[in-house]
Here is the input.
Amino acid sequence: MDLLNQGKHTWERYTGMSLGRTVDYSGAILGFHDDAHVDVLYRWAPNAYCHFHRHFAPASSIVLEGEFHVYDYVDGKEVGHRVRQVGDYSHTSGIEDHIEQGGPVGALVIFSLYAPDGVLTQRLDDDGSVIQTVTLDALRSKHEALF
Here is the structure.
């Protein structure tokens, strides 16, 4: 599979506002594995954000294109900002609230998530309350409906 040939993937686009910031990113599912792993590819429009969220599943990622920003939050306050460049690898295993942003030319990032209990992420409202819980089963069902 050619990860960089973005025309070969089926993308789902997300837009709106989150934490007062412009949301514009797209996701493509690359594959599900029988051991509770899922691989996804996300791309951000230039200087745009994803929705405020938290991960429950350990996640590994690699920046493939652009510049990738991660803003960490604790109790509704920004407590950290990390900038990742092309080729940077990251692995997180704890639950952390954050919002991500593409740099001046956007970003393309591959994620591998492991969800043995089936829970991947929670999308959060600006006040940190849960809007949506994303599970492995729900993501798989949505993906299968596209094909």
The mean pLDDT is 92. The chain has one domain: 9-146.
